[in-house]
Amino acid sequence: MLGVVYRDLKPENVLVRDDGHIMLSDFDLSLQQCAVSPTLVRAPACDSDPRRAGGAFCVRPSACMEPSAACVQPACFMPRLFGQRSMRRRQGSELGQGVPELVAEPTAARSMSFVGTHEYLAPEIIKGEGHGSAVDWWTLGVFLHELLYGRTPFKGSGNRATLFNVVDQQLRFPESPSTSYAARDLVRGLLVKEPQQRLGVKRGAAEIKQHPFFEGVNWALIRCSTPPEVPKHVEAEPPAKCGPTHQPPASKTVIGAAEVKSGGKFLDFEFF
User: Fold this and answer.
1) How confident is the model over 138-149, as pLDDT tens digits?
2) Residue 187's closest CA among 162, 216, 211, 219?
3) Which residues are catalytic?
4) pTM assigned to the model
């Protein structure tokens, strides 16, 4: 929505707030102010229903006719777009069909810069072919792999070996720990070396949120939900009161041209 290609997703840049939700930091490497055309697109089911064929839910009407703008069913809520009577007649499983979905991704952004962290660099950055917003979905795949298995998927013995692995090595999942098929399928879709075939390149976050791995997540109310882990508040100890304190007499030791006095917890150096 803001037209930002982050380009440096890694654990060090993900902060946990006091309410348990996460936020990104360090936008120094990000590609900002990219052109974004927020568009509401319909699910394919809408086009097959003659009763809805005349309705277009687009901010940019031409997007409805573009193959890349095809939308999948939303995972959150169902707005009241149709008559109340027709809504009652629909079964719960059919309510999500044909609901417009917002797509706001900087898909046209392009850069030739070589930026990022070696283990998280996308293949197109390493090869110098130019890159766009798809690099963020690659780094998300690397990030998820590290969360699941404790290490990045293409790490080599050094930076050079890592870069070669990113470009040439096939993705292989460790045998342990055991992970779900949905988790592996999501990572596999994000770590496609060809950016045009990568998950999220067409509809961005809207496409990824539809993956079965996120089944049951209410994206519309995600900011209001309670995370599985909420940091415990720790009371900071009050600073020690200033005033005279009793300390044992300091002993002196001469080292070279410096006189060292041991004064309790610290050492005082006197140079002459």
Assistant:
1) 999 999 999 999
2) 211
3) 8
4) 0.60
